[in-house]
């Protein structure tokens, strides 16, 4: 009897088949399943991927319970099936090698003024971020005018005022009104040469324009316009301005920012440079309307509230100290003075100007026992005497400063130099003019009485000033005295040690303006909402503010043509009156 085999049944079958293993049912089922999935994948990737409409079909992937896949968490897509690899593309050897290297980093756009900005980062350089480059202009733009000084004014011999680096002849001190040194008979329109000579003493001049924070153009624009205002055609009046612009635009320094880092000085009011038409009867030249000049910054003794390319700087006074001690001694003296007069006024009426309030101010002063009046009508020599004017201001608590023939007048700075609190009647006389040099909070150093209140007889100057508490008056006077260094020009032949004068304040402001512009350009910032007609409002913004809106002074500046906004007949008349006042010796 045979023993039953212990091998599995399929083993018996294999032996019967001549030693070959019969196909297993398990292998068969596995093969069948594999073929099924191959067909599924082939259909999805080979067929559907070629069909644009079918490509919109998506196989739903199982989601995590109560959780959506984030972009980073999505499972990787399976690799696409390709029947044949694409034929190799021949590549140049240089390209082949460069492809193996890491891709180069994209460098930020380089600006030609970046080196100048970086100088400010060098803390060991006291001039870092403060360098000034000065163009070496041909002498026809400056020195030749000084040599021909007799031609600078129709009525005034300007040669005597060109002495002492533009300060004029020294003033005597027979009456003891001035201090012993630093006082000169300075012409009110001499800023061109005073500023230019001060620039020669600037401690951070450079011959390398690539590190300059700003570029100074020593063109005597005020002297130039003065030569040809009377009896010359518009071509003659514009000749030097056009010549200057042509010269500048050929220089490499101009190409860095198209002139937006350039600045120049003119010791005249802005309306002398804003002639709109080519009519011979129109006033002044068109320097400030030249396209290239619009990019530059022009410092003038009176700026336009409605234009962005000019900035107000103080008129020169009679005091030009050569050292800090001169200033400190003068300030101490102004603090200690007795001031018997509540208020004072020096000036002449303007009967031909229906908008002038000078007549009302003179009437109120005459009728007050606490007002000192210095009438400056024709033949009144005291108004031409610096000592008489300064003596009156030194004896007064408040000094009335209405508009002159234009918005501003030199007298405002003479009164502040004397420690007298100025009283303004129009915001264009100081508040929107000298925002670099005077506090934006005008109540700290001045009193404001709207012109209309005087014109309509609704205000008594005496009562208004008497209503200010004595403690407030003392604080205001101290503020005025502390402002003295900022509103005077030091002797150009020297340099104050620690104090900043009007020149220093102006240069710092220009450097800040250009530096801010450069940084905005690099950062891609641009104020697309800037409205040039509202320039006066932007000047009043505090640091960090960028948005303007309705302002209490809108009525004063709502109609530019009323007071010379665009070289209208009113502005031309104001400028002409200013020249007539110079002829009379009035301010």
Largest sheet: 6 strands, parallel
Uncertain parts:
1-23, 43-108, 560-568, 583-587
Helix content: 25-40%
The number of helical segments is 22
Number of domains: 2
Which descriptor suits the 3D outline?
globular
Family: Belongs to the glycosyltransferase 47 family.
Biased composition (Basic and acidic residues): 551-565
Transmembrane segments: 26-45
Domain Exostosin GT47: 127-464
Quick recap:
The chain has 587 residues and is of the alpha/beta class.
Structure description:
The protein starts with 8 loop residues before the first helix and ends with a helix. It folds into 2 domains: 113-316 and 502-585, no CATH class; 335-485, 3-Layer(aba) Sandwich (Rossmann fold). It is globular and about 130 Å long. Helix 8 (221-228) runs antiparallel to helix 9. It is α/β, with parallel strands linked by helices and 587 residues long. Helix 13 (358-366) links the parallel strand 7 and strand 8. Helix content is 35%, strand content 8%. Belongs to the glycosyltransferase 47 family. Residues 551-565 have a biased composition (Basic and acidic residues). Residues 127-464 form the Exostosin GT47 domain. Residues 1-21, 551-587 are annotated as: Disordered.
């Amino acid at each position: 009897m045979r023993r039953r085999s212990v091998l599995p049944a399929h083993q018996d079958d294999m032996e019967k088949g001549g030693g070959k293993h019969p196909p297993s049912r398990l292998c068969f089922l596995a093969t069948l399943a594999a073929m099924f999935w191959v067909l599924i994948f082939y259909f999805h990737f080979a067929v559907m991927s070629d069909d644009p409409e079918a490509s919109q079909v998506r196989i739903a992937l199982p989601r995590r319970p109560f959780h959506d896949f984030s972009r980073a968490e999505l499972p990787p897509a399976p690799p696409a099936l390709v029947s044949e690899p694409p034929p190799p593309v021949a590549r140049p050897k240089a390209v082949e090698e460069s492809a193996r290297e890491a891709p180069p980093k994209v460098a930020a756009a380089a600006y030609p003024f970046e080196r100048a900005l970086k100088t400010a980062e060098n803390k060991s350089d006291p001039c870092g971020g403060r360098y000034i480059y000065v163009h070496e202009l041909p002498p026809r733009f400056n020195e030749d005018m000084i040599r021909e000084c007799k031609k600078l004014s129709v009525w005034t011999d300007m040669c005597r005022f060109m002495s002492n680096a533009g300060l004029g002849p020294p003033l005597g001190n027979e009456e003891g009104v001035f201090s012993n040194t630093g006082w000169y008979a300075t012409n009110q329109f001499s800023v061109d040469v005073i500023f230019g000579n001060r620039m020669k003493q600037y401690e951070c001049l450079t011959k390398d324009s690539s590190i300059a924070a700003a570029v100074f153009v020593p063109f005597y624009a005020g002297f130039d316009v003065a030569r040809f205002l009377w009896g010359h055609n518009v071509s003659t009046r514009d000749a030097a301005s056009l010549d200057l612009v042509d010269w500048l635009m050929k220089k490499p320094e101009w190409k860095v920012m198209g002139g937006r880092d350039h600045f120049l000085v003119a010791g005249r009011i802005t309306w002398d440079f804003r002639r709109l038409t080519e009519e011979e009867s129109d006033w002044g030249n068109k320097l400030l309307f030249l396209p290239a000049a619009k990019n530059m910054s022009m410092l003038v003794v009176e700026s336009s509230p409605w234009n962005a390319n000019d900035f107000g700087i103080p008129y020169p006074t009679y005091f030009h100290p050569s050292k800090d001690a001169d200033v400190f001694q003068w300030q101490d003296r102004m603090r200690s003075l007795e001031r018997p007069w509540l208020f004072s006024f020096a000036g002449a009426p303007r009967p031909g100007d229906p908008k002038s309030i000078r007549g009302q101010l003179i009437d109120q002063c005459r009728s007050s026992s606490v007002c000192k009046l210095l009438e400056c009508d024709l033949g009144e020599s005291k108004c031409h005497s610096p000592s008489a004017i300064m003596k009156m201001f030194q004896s007064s608590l408040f000094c009335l400063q209405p508009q002159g023939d234009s918005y501003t007048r030199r007298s405002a700075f003479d009164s502040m130099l004397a420690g007298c609190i100025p009283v303004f009647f129009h915001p264009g006389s100081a508040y929107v003019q000298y925002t670099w040099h005077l506090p934006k909070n005008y109540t700290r150093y001045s009193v404001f009485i709207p012109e209309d209140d005087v014109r309509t007889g609704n205000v008594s100057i005496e009562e208004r000033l008497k209503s200010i508490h004595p403690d407030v008056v003392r604080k205001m006077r101290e503020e005025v005295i502390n402002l003295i260094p900022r509103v005077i020009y030091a002797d150009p032949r020297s340099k104050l040690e620690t104090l900043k004068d009007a020149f220093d304040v102006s240069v710092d402001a220009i450097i800040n303006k250009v530096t801010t512009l450069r940084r905005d350009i690099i950062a891609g910032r641009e104020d697309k909402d800037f409205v040039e007609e509202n320039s006066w409002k932007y000047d009043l913004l505090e640091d960090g503010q960028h948005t303007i809106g309705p302002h209490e002074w809108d009525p004063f500046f709502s109609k530019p043509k009323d007071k010379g906004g665009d070289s209208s007949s009113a502005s031309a008349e104001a400028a002409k009156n200013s020249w007539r006042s110079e002829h009379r010796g009035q301010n």
